[in-house]
Write a structure and sequence with these properties.
Elements (H helix, E strand, L loop, with lengths): L1 E5 L6 H15 L5 E4 L9 H4 L14 H6 L8 E3 L7 H5 L5 E4 L2 E3 L3 E6 L2 E6 L22 H4 L5 H7 L8 E4 L12 H7 L4 H5 L6 H10 L3 E4 L6 E6 L11 E6 L6 H4 L3 E3 L10 E3 L1 H9 L29 H10 L34 H10 L4 H11 L5 H8 L29 E3 L30 E2 L12 H31 L11 E3 H5 L3 H6 L1
Parallel strand pairs: 1-2, 2-3, 3-5, 7-8, 8-9, 9-11, 10-15
Antiparallel strand pairs: 1-12, 4-5, 6-7, 6-13, 10-11, 14-16
GO molecular function, one term: RNA lariat debranching enzyme activity
InterPro entries: Calcineurin-like_PHP (IPR004843), DBR1_C (IPR007708), Dbr1_N (IPR041816), Metallo-depent_PP-like (IPR029052)
Cofactor: Mn(2+); Zn(2+); Fe(2+)
Length: 539
């Protein structure tokens, strides 16, 4: 079957679907499935806009509301994950996934589904070390901290995905797996996006949590977005035993929604089960994992670690048996079809009656209620509501005290991972600073020139084959202690290098003592991501 993959669409659904229809008319190419790798922006109304972490001038309604209201319907089944520019209050209604509009399905904080026998997984949000070990405690109305932390990846979602044993065909993440740039045309990447050089050379660009999942899941395809540059890589995974067959992952990072000529390079042929139906289906192993890990659900701001084999936990392996998977199948009477139970949970935007003062509210979505009741799971939003009403634990009483903490977290609660790139921005801690030059150019590492009449084979996009060395592996065992030991062993020269690197970073964003910058003007990713309206009209 043909699968189209899109990067950040930023709510421009009309443009995206019109592009696919144009492809069909001009090139007789019709995808069976569309995957979107975050920054989808399922904005229903003005209240949703207030829950999106972008500067006010970029809060545009776009066109999703037309699909939410039923005025339009997605012409192709669409599955997406969340990014870091979303209507977080809307997506929060569906922590386990669900329909945001007819024929448009959100995978949840993390999820796995099946379509025509193809197994598709994903994880929403971006990685930030200071929120990684917290629970999903946020709820609208958000403050300046929670409007961002709401879309930060949590360790429980990574832990759940790591319990999977069966092969994954396709996986999506918004930010790139850390180190993936070493397996493609890195030279060309840095030529097009020179401001990535410092993070690439220090191996801090991207998500260490996604890197961990990449090594564990070893999917056939991995798609990402976020950085607004097209980049391909090919990773040959190491085998754990002589009996294990070699596995490789084809990685593709997508630019934002592109003209139809570029979309041709983002449609791949995926082997599928010809006997499978055309409905989106639950994945029985994933449902079994959700049931097995339900006791680990946390809705507090307290930092906590997932169970490990370290002598501190009675149980650390939550992977499921074939018997547990069989029980899920029996519960569903072997009918895995995801019910088309979309319902409106908020007023839809009416261009003739704008409501600029509409306030967001915390909503319990019937889809989530039904899903949790069917499989015996905790409704995260219901648990948050209870905590708020009772004012217990980390509810309202202690929340205000917690929110006074600096967004970079507390040194007394070290993250499982010791680095992220949040410190590069003095405006928005979730954005990387971008140079004025470079813009949003498309970067393709295809070994053949793309042609609108002859779309290249997907395999030609991968310029290198390498095996990831153990030294690049990032696992849950690589905690702060091991990092500190390495620093101690490296001696004074290493400290001097780090000091010099830190000074260069500070100079980069701080300028001289008179406030004048000694380098080229830089801007937030937001300013590069959100093109001006005039530019959009010319695309």
């Amino acid at each position: 079957m043909k699968v189209a993959v899109a990067g950040c669409c930023h709510g421009a659904l009309d443009k995206m679907y019109e592009t696919l229809e144009l492809l069909q008319r001009r090139h007789n190419v019709r995808p069976d499935l569309l995957l979107c790798c975050g920054d989808f922006q399922a904005v229903r109304n003005e209240a949703d806009l207030r829950c999106m972490a972008v500067p006010a001038k970029y809060r545009h309604m776009q066109t999703f509301y037309r699909y939410y209201s039923g005025e339009k319907k997605a012409p192709v089944l669409t599955v997406f994950i969340g990014g870091n520019h979303e209507a977080s209050n809307h997506l929060q209604e569906l922590p386990y996934g669900g329909w945001v509009a007819p024929n448009i399905y959100y995978l949840g904080y993390a999820g796995v589904v099946r379509f025509r026998g193809v197994r598709i997984g994903g994880i929403s949000g971006i990685f930030k070390s200071h929120d990684y070990r917290k629970g999903h405690f946020e709820c609208p109305p958000y403050n300046q901290q929670t409007i961002r932390s709401a879309y930060h990846v949590r360790n429980i979602e990574v832990f759940k995905l790591k319990q999977l044993k069966r092969p994954i065909d396709i996986f999506m993440s918004h930010d790139w797996p850390r180190s993936i740039y070493h397996y493609g045309n890195k030279k060309q990447l840095l030529k097009m996006k020179s401001f990535f050089r410092q993070e690439v050379e220090s191996n801090t660009l991207g998500s260490p949590a996604a890197s961990e999942l990449l090594q564990h899941l070893k999917p056939t395809y991995w798609f990402s977005a976020h950085l607004h540059v097209k980049f391909a890589a090919f990773m040959q995974h190491e085998t754990n035993s002589k009996e294990e067959l070699p596995k490789a992952t084809k990685f593709l990072a997508l630019d934002k929604c592109l003209p139809h000529r570029d979309f041709l390079q983002q449609i791949i042929d995926v082997e599928h089960d010809p006997n499978a139906g055309d409905s989106l289906e639950y994945d029985p192993e994933w449902i079994a994992v959700l049931k097995a890990t339900n006791s680990l659900v946390n809705v507090t701001q307290s930092s906590w670690n997932m169970p490990e084999k370290n002598g501190l936990h009675a149980k650390w392996d939550y992977s499921v048996t074939e018997e547990a998977i069989k029980e899920v199948l029996e519960e569903l009477n072997h009918d895995l079809k995801i019910p088309c139970n979309f319902t409106l949970t908020a007023a839809c935007y009416d261009p003739s009656k704008p409501q600029k003062n509409m306030e967001p509210v915390h909503t319990i979505n019937p889809q989530t209620t039904e899903f949790c009741a069917q499989f015996g799971l905790t409704d995260i939003n219901d648990r948050i509501q209870q905590a708020k009403e009772e004012g217990s634990g980390r509810g309202e009483c202690e929340e205000e005290e917690e929110e006074e903490m600096d967004s970079t977290g507390s040194a007394e609660e070290p993250s499982e991972y010791n680095t992220d790139n949040s410190g590069l921005s003095s405006f928005n801690p979730d954005e990387i600073m971008l140079d004025e030059e470079g813009g949003d150019e498309d970067l393709s590492t295809c070994s053949v020139d793309p042609s609108p009449d002859h779309p290249p084979e997907f395999s030609t996009s991968f310029s290198d084959i390498r095996i990831m060395p153990d030294s690049m592996a990032v696992s849950s065992d690589d905690a702060m202690d091991s990092n500190n030991e390495e620093l101690e062993k490296s001696g004074g020269s290493k400290q001097a290098e780090e000091k010099s690197s830190t000074e260069r970073s500070l100079k980069r964003i701080g300028g001289d003592e008179n406030g004048n910058s000694g380098v080229k003007k830089i801007k937030r990713r937001n300013q590069a991501i959100y093109a001006a309206e005039d530019e959009d009209k010319t695309d």
